[in-house]
Amino acid sequence: MIPLAEFKQFSEQQPAFKLLKPWWDVLAEYLTVAMLMIGVFGCTLQVTQDKIICLPSHEPRENLSEAPCQQLLLQGVPEQMEGLQEVSGLKNNLDLQQYSFINQLCYEKALHWYPKYFPYLVVIHTLIFMVCTSFWFKFPGTSSKIEHFTSILGKCFDSPWTTRALSEVSGENRKGHATGRATATVAAEAGPGKVGEGEKEKVLTEPEKVVTEPPAVTLLDKKEGEQAKALFEKVKKFRVHVEEGDILYTMYIRQMVLKVCKFFAILVYNLIYVEKISFVVACTVETSRFTGYASFCCNHTKAHLFSKLAFCYISFVCVYGITCLYTLYWLFHRPLKEYSFRSVREETGMGDIPDVKNDFAFMLHLIDQYDPLYSKRFAVFLSEVSESRLKQLNLNHEWTPEKLRQKLQHNTTGRLELALCMLPGLPDTVFELREVEALRLEAISDITFPPGLSQLVHLQELSLIHSPARLPFSLQIFLRDRLKVIRIKCEELREVPLWVFGLRGLEELHLEGLFPPELAQAATLESLRELKQLKVLSLWSNAGKVPASVTDVAGHLQRLSLHNDGARLLALNSLKKLTVLRELELVACGLERIPHAVFSLGALQELDLKDNHLRSIEEILSFQHCRKLITLRLWHNQIAYVPEHVRKLRVLEQLYLSHNKLEALPTQLGMCSGLRLLDVTHNGLHSLPPELGLLQNLQHLALSYNALETLPDELFFCCKLRTLLLGYNQLTQLSPQVGALRSLIRLELKGNRLEALPEELGNCRELKKAGLLVENSLYEGLPAEVREKMEEE
């Protein structure tokens, strides 16, 4: 006897796979179990009982047929018997072995193959049905995807985040519906034509009392949040992987078509041959040499039972076939390679849940046949809004207010600043730090400021470094007059948020980004007309000209900084309109001459032309029209000489000429009587004019990294000199006149050819050891009393 457990492996799947078994697959599974029991029962009878019993026939061979056998068997004992008498029949003179031989021979020769192999055929066909049903659960190309999908689906269904997300949405929807109903009720009670000011206030305030409490939201701990975050990543990768093909859909159709074909084949041949199951079988075999008989009448002992089993089997097969035909209709009638979450989007309010296709869509259709709730809960992990909420929750767990307060520090402008870098989002806990005055966000993607931003009542400075941000209109109104400084750095200037240009209280605007190549020459920037208080504008870009919108703030702009990344800046005439401009920076703008528009800026106090291509500065004479110019930075250029009419710049206080190609300084430089700082480091100077000694207001003189061999004694007449940098030259001695510099606090002498230092350094009363930059050997060569004096605090 064959136990049913032996066939379990053919239909056994993982418990989770039941999610992908719709009702017709479940019904087909029960039908196959019933058919298998029929087959196993028939096989058991076939093996354990006699198959056929034969008796010799005394009819001539030519007259033998099933009819005489039927008549012979139908003759029974007379119904009315007078008394008991011995029943006697024909004696065949055959022993038991001969009967067994005839039974086996007639079973093989005379019995039709259908009743002979019926139970085995039932078992084989049923096993084929089982294999067809479960093949896609076993095939490597499909089973891996199914196993992965059911694993993710189960985790998504049980995830606490799913419950929380749906609860939040349910609470919001319930709140919205309650508010609407309450408003309508109050308005109806007020009656037409009676809604005055009091009624309007009632309509606005009454819903707040009627709103039902949202359902309790499950709180997630940090571990659960991390698990949900990992689920989002798994769902993303799985979706990309599964949506590429339709092997699951194709495999399911193929196995269903095979089952339908198998159904028709079984049905046809069973209907044809079922009548071959007969109780009486006529048998004619050549056994007269062994038994004396050649004709036999045989009884197929299981014919009656097999005919009933065949009827049941055909009935089950018909039901099975109908379910397969319905499945094919379902497969071809509906677009199963596309799945829409429209109903879920409408129910949950998560409008960003995407529709899916191919195998992903097909599996979700199968899931809906099992339980639509699975798809609804799974959709939570397809929503970017849901993912952003989870990220926000995890951020709030990680960045507590106490941890954020540890990052507070004062920035260069003296404001209390909170700097956050490379976070997946902006923690809500930031807005609990009411003392924050400056907020710096760097490399934080897709920021949407929440209403909590209004709690930062002291916020005056905002920096967005590669951090695109959206600001609701209500918060734009909040920041419009509060924010004073904003710094934005992005890849392209067109990424600058438009709300920035509506902050009418803004005083400083710093923008860094490139114009697209096709827009660089036009250099179009959003209108600055609303920025009525703007005083500082900084633009790091590749503009072909000064943006025309700069003139919108010409009446109050005091500082303009243009860093052009080496691109040549043309059409600078618009600078003439900046009549109140005090500071101008034209850095890396590809300038070869000093722009003439600069000389029209009568209020200009500082000019920086760093990192350009200036070779000649003959136009320096025109700076006499800039009567307030006190700082001139011409560093990092290719200037070979300074013209002699530099003497006209009598009000100039700071002159930067470092990193150029100067080999000499004009004697007329000594006539710039107001000069306080002179920087000519990193040039090729061999000597200095004695007239530098006329600069009686000079306090800072930087001569490092030149080729000076000697210094004029007149240089030490600059008695106010506090910083003298002479490092990395070719000086062989330092004049004892250095002792006249009584205010000197910093002296650099490293990198020269000095053999000794003059002891007159002791007369520099303000010079200490920390301010003397020189080799240790030279310092040790000073007299002990000089060293002691310098080391005094």
From TrEMBL:
Q: Name one GO biological process term.
A: cellular response to osmotic stress
For this UniProt entry, the molecular function terms from Gene Ontology, in alphabetical order, are:
volume-sensitive anion channel activity
Q: Which reaction does it catalyse?
A: taurine(out) = taurine(in); iodide(out) = iodide(in); chloride(in) = chloride(out)
Q: Which residues cross the membrane?
A: 27-47, 117-137, 310-332
Cellular localisation: Cell membrane
The UniProt record lists the keyword Transferase: no
Where in this chain does the record put each LRRC8 pannexin-like TM region domain?
Answer: 1-328
Q: What is this protein called?
A: Leucine rich repeat containing 8 VRAC subunit E
- Origin species: Myotis lucifugus (Little brown bat)
UniProt gene name? LRRC8E
